[in-house]
Protein: ABC transporter permease
Amino acid sequence: MSADRDADASLVERVKENPGPALGWLAGALILFALEAGAVVHFVTGLFGPGVELPTLLTRDLIPNGGYQTASGGWEKTFLGLAPAYAWALRVVLIYAYAFLWLVWLWRGYVVFRENYRHADWTPRDDMVDRLRGHRWGQFGAVVVFAFVVMAMFAPALGPTTVEKNISNPYSHYIEHYNDEGQLENITVGTANLGSRSQGTPERNVGPMQYDKFGRWHPFGTLPSGKDMFTFMAAGARISLFIGLISIGASGLIAAAFALLTAYYKGLVDLAVVIVGDSIMSLPRLLFVMLLSVVLGGTWIAEIYSGALVLALIFAGTGWPFLWRSVRGPAMQVSEQEWIDAAKSFGQRPTVTMRKHMAPYILGYLLVYASMSLGGVIIAVAGLSFLGLGINPPTPEWGRAVDIGQSYVTTSSWHISFIPGVMIVLVVTAFNALGDGIRDAIDPQSGSGEGEGSEAAAATGGGA
Structure:
């Protein structure tokens, strides 16, 4: 197959020569995207104000779970008359199935590229993928990270209710239920929340996997305010993922750029970046982040996504030296190779040399340390919210739930702090496990400390 392909042809040219497999995969991807395109539009527009509502397939409107129980024990206004717990569970299963189908289709895209458009039949990347597929600890991390990412991306549809109805503006929305006199009553969500509070006593507690007295299903129970905790956690996952991805992405770009510059030019450029990076690393990071969050809290950028963007930029600005130190060693190592000297002698532009011959070498190391750092950002955001800083209330955030429930840990309402605490630990551990899997896939000898793996680890450690 690959022998017939022009080794000098670009990917676009190869696709033009054989468009069938690419168009088939693209058609499937467009169909999958069209099913949930409205959710993407809602999220993007929601960053700057009220999100634009467009119909999507996996919504609570299509599979509602917010009805009420009749006197005969049946349910009205739920999907097919199912109990809210079953209707909600069905929607959750379909959402995760849809996300898994996307994962399968992306893998299918890689296979299509490998079989039809890649120059070589085999590359070292194939062995990396095979090693990662056999790495059980890395697979555990990948599964948990997948579940977390899906929870964040589909938060509005996954929750038994919505943030707007149950958390942000509960007194502007209504629910129906049969009262003690057997009459169908229409009350505000805020009033219902007052009767569904979890405040540490058996009489005032709605625990995990329970209904409240208004017939509302709460998979994680309720908060002391009576608000649904699963909805709170799902929305908080979206905030945490947004901050983590933006901060790590920006930090990674800065770190990679400085690593390539310092490795290529060395001398004064390296010294200048070392001074700046060490100066930032010498500061007590938590206090520095707290100071910047307060100083920038009154600016216009702090209003974007309830302060999530400014917090992401703060973490990026204070975190890039740690990533840069991690990839500086490998960048220095590759800059001493003969092909770099050959590229210089042929008069190749520095930017081309760094992009084509140096950047691919450090990308794997950057990916490993970025995946491990992402968990640290998530736990740092939770810590700031626990201290009452960071994300502007009432926007949900996991650390705030831990703070709210800390006085109820030994009571009937133990779930308020326990569930978010366990989820924080689980997600952070999963990102570290995934990072371990990627590291071992890239360098199978990294764990044994032998051969080339130990040399790469020493180079990396020397720059850390």
Notes: The longest strand covers residues 174-178. The CA atoms of residues 344 and 350 lie 8 Å apart.
